[in-house]
Amino acid sequence: MGNLLTATGLKSYYRTVQGEEIKAVDDVSLEVREGEVLGIAGESGCGKSTLASVLSFTVLPPLYILGGEVRADGNNILVMDRETLRREIKGKYISIVPQGAMNSLNPTMRIKNFVIDVLEEHFSEISKEEALQRARERFEALSLPSRVLDAYPHQLSGGMKQRTVTVISTLLNPNVLIADEPTSALDVSSQKIVIKLLVELLRRKIIKSVVFITHELPLLRHFADRIAIMYAGKIVEIGPMEDIIFNPFHPYSRLLTSSVLVPEPGMKQKKIEAIPGVPPNLKNPPSGCRFHPRCPSYMEGLCNIEIPPLIEVKEDHRVSCFLYGGKNG
Amino acid sequence: MVEDRELLRVENLTRIFGSGKSQVRAVDNVSFSIKEGEIVSLLGESGSGKTTTARLILKLLPPTSGKIIFRGKDITYVSSRKELLNYWREVQAIFQDPFSSFNIFYSIRRVLNNALRLVSESISREEREEMIKEVLLSVGLNPAEILDKRPYELSGGQRQRIMLARVLLIRPKLLVADEPTSMIDASSRAGILNLLMELRNAYGMSIIFITHDIGLAYYTSDRLFIMNSGKIVEEGDAEEIINNPKDDYTKKLLEDVPVIHRKWEL
Predict the structure, then answer these.
(1) Which residue of chain B comes nearest to A263, CA vs CA?
(2) Chain B residues with at least one Cβ partner in A under 8 Å
(3) Where are the beta strands (DSSP E) in chain B?
(4) ipTM over 0.90
(5) Pick from A230, A239, A226: which is nearest to A315 by CA?
(6) pLDDT for A138-147, tens place per residue?
(7) CA angle (A85, A89, A91) in 5-degree steps
(8) What is the pLDDT of residue A16?
(9) Residue ranges of the domains in chain B?
């Protein structure tokens, strides 16, 4: 199976009015494979939502792309002109469910009118009836009540709104769906329903892969195939889900996985520790490995000077840490 | 840690919003009691009435019926400013929305000074400054960076920490913590919770967590109260409920929480 999306050396910075740069995504490379759910996890401010914007071409000033490329179908889509991008790629090849999708619906518009707008934009000949018919079939196929189409957003519950937005963003059968914290505002039961919907979309081959961005590792445990851990604008570890959850290599991933609180027998007796310190300000990220000021395995004279490369430690499992090699000479 | 003296008891507490057809029984005949030094959680999903219960206990909202008894005294109908201030000296809250909890015109220094004034008027300015710096450090904030800022200049997580700092200054008998870590990352959530649990150990403070986070409730609490549509559907020892839930709603809730060692069927 091939890669649907390959990002290499992506750099994307916010530029402030004062001319400062916030290095939210700094030299990130990853690939999205056909048929997989790729989870991206990290603390707030680690650049995971920025990465979502870059991958889904929703980059707006003050965010700028400064380097790297994103290849889809053999083309570098970062250099495509806006019009082609909008017509050919957005929604069709890559689609996004943004953070706070619950507020992305127009409150004065019935859902069906929004759906018609979306479809008319991409198929100029489609009639309103056809568009509506298509939407209705899709809603029913995914066991969402089609009466949702006649409702206004405020008449729907949070979970239902989130599912509606997800179905609308996949109406054009995109290859890659980027879901940016789609469930963080939902109750656990609605969260599970949304996850089920995503899995169903994959199963029916409506979408070919999902990039799921979240700060909640336990959630990824249940449906991700691979997980990438981000810290301060960089990917520090990427590998198969089971490896990352149960046997992480990078000191940051280790601390992150041991700081989760889940209601499982025995958890109460354990003392859960927070990761000491706070994530760095990305205006002036620490030199060398960006995690070194908080790292328990910090090596003076190495970690604070050189940037550890992302190297393969196991099959399909890469880590950026000098504990596992990668030192020059 | 947990004393045998009862701190707070609510009896048949009910709060109804609206009237006629659109009437909502947000809190429906809820009764429970908390001992000194005990940590409990009111656990439920959105709309279960847990925040309304918190507001009733805090005397921010009058109940439709029922009683609130604090340290043996019925305070359900207490309403004078003086008595309320006395009550709030002993019962404090951390709210889920740190964005609307502070006066945006006040600097953090002023917010915290006001909190100290609630405790005592007789502390000197220098002493106050010292105490404030100390608590800010203990909640993981840098005083020099924070003190002259106003709430809108801080992130959600920082604001929640400021609320914690207030609690550390006032040291109430009872703390009502309404989703205290919803805006804080998982990686630092444990730190805040450990800090709150230490407060219980050090000062015998009781805490009511109002939360939908079952992991948090289980980790911190002695007892859990599971709420669904205004009613407590199950209550008991935290360990017992997690291992052996009895009520159907509790079972469903536990099934839907993502845990590590049991994978969902999807």
Answers:
(1) B215
(2) 45-46, 140, 157, 185-194, 212-219, 238-239, 242-243, 252-254, 256-264, 266
(3) 6-17, 24-35, 39-43, 65-70, 73-74, 91-94, 174-178, 206-211, 223-228, 231-237
(4) no
(5) A239
(6) 999 898 888 8
(7) 120
(8) 87
(9) 6-256
- For the CA atoms of B188, B190, B191, B193, the dihedral, rounded to the nearest 10 degrees, stands at 130
- CA A273 to chain CA mean position, Å: 26
Query: From CA A14, how far away is CA A16, in angstroms rounded?
Result: 6
Instruction: Tell me, yes or no, whether A26 lies in a domain.
Output: yes
Residue range(s) defining the domain that contains residue A25: 3-79+208-324
Name the region of B235 (left: φ>0; alpha: ψ -120 to 50; beta: rest): beta
Inter-chain touch B215–A261, beta carbons under 8 Å: yes
Residue A97 domain flag: no
**Edge-to-edge strand ranges of the sheet holding A234-240:** A94-97, A176-180, A209-214, A37-41, A226-231, A234-240, A317-319, A311-314
**Domain assignment of residue A156, yes or no:** no
* Cis geometry, peptide bond prior to residue A182 (ω within 30 degrees of 0): no
pTM given for the model? 0.87
User: Chain B interface, mutation test: which of A202, A260, A271, A282, most B Cβ atoms within 10 Å?
Assistant: A260
CATH of the domain at A39: 3.40.50.300
CB A181 within 8 A of CB A225: no
pLDDT 10s digits, A179-200 = 998 888 788 888 999 999 999 9
- Say how far residue A124 (Cα) sits from the centre of its chain: 31
CB-hemisphere CA count at 13 Å for B157? 16
Q: Is residue A179 part of a domain?
A: no
Residue in the structure block whose two tokens are 């000074």: B113
Which of A199, A261, A275 is the best residue to mutate to test the B interface, defined by the most B CB atoms within 10 Å of its own CB?
A261
Could you give the number of structural domains in chain A?
A: 1
- CATH number of the B6-256 domain: 3.40.50.300
Look up residue A253 and give its two tokens: 């991933």
